[in-house]
Design goal:
222 residues, alpha+beta, 2 domains, seven-stranded antiparallel beta sheet, 3 helices, binds calcium ion
Length: 222
């Protein structure tokens, strides 16, 4: 699955390169957005969003869940991060995790160790093992004289519409059917997010939420 995704993203990158850099990205494109250096790191941290293949991605604007975001990095899956003003020639560890707080096996998506330069700059290229929509990712840095400092946060958009369980680009009764089949343990594919109500579990509550959404009730779906 991951290989196929990577291959698709590489093809998509070629399309982007061929069509020029100032492309207006519509809703439904995957990418990283809301990249924000943490308080205290706005002047010492620099970053570059990259595709899985390592190509630099420039920011553009995109519609995500009805909101316009101006710092959207389409197809980005990696983040090259540099922090200056640190100890010279010292070891630093970077953590990328879901939400804030202590790293756990469940919330940790990337960890790496690098040595800072002789002028006190450390550079990491974070490539999270997985990124999900509607999750706040936080980046922490630790060193001998630096105790776990939050240095950055960002969000990710998977490119699949909330409620589009079968991944055909539309949200309709077919998705309700597919989710019901999935809950009944039928062997069906569910490329969309099956946790429709966003509570971290997949069960009948998600079926109810999707049904309410399709009936135009004022409910939020993820
Ligand atoms: Ca669908
Ligand atoms: Ca759920």
């Amino acid at each position: 699955m991951k290989k196929i995704l990577r291959a698709f993203l590489s093809m998509a990158l070629v399309c982007v390169l061929l069509s020029g850099s100032l492309v207006a990205f519509a809703a439904g494109d995957a990418g990283i957005f809301n990249v924000t250096p943490a308080t205290g790191y706005t002047s010492s941290l620099t970053y570059e969003a990259q595709t899985a293949a390592g190509a630099k991605v420039n920011s553009t604007s995109a519609e995500i869940k009805g909101y316009t975001v101006t710092n959207f990095y389409a197809k980005a899956e990696k983040m090259k991060i540099s922090v200056k003003g640190l100890d010279n020639n010292a070891e630093y560890v970077i953590f990328v995790q879901k939400a804030t707080g202590d790293p756990t096996a469940e919330n940790l998506v990337y960890v790496d160790q690098q040595k800072s330069s002789s002028s006190g700059t450390v550079t990491f290229t974070a490539f999270p093992k997985s990124l999900e929509s509607n999750v706040l990712y936080t980046v922490y840095l630790s060193g001998t004289s630096l105790s776990r400092a939050k240095i950055m946060e960002f969000r990710y958009n998977s490119g699949i519409l909330p409620g589009d369980i079968n991944g055909d680009g539309k949200v309709n009764n077919k998705d309700l059917t597919r989710l019901a089949q999935h809950l009944a343990k039928k062997p069906v594919e569910t490329p969309g997010n099956t946790d429709v109500n966003g509570d971290g579990k997949v069960n009948n509550k998600d079926l109810t939420r999707l049904a309410q959404y399709l009936a135009k009730k004022p409910v939020e779906i993820f």
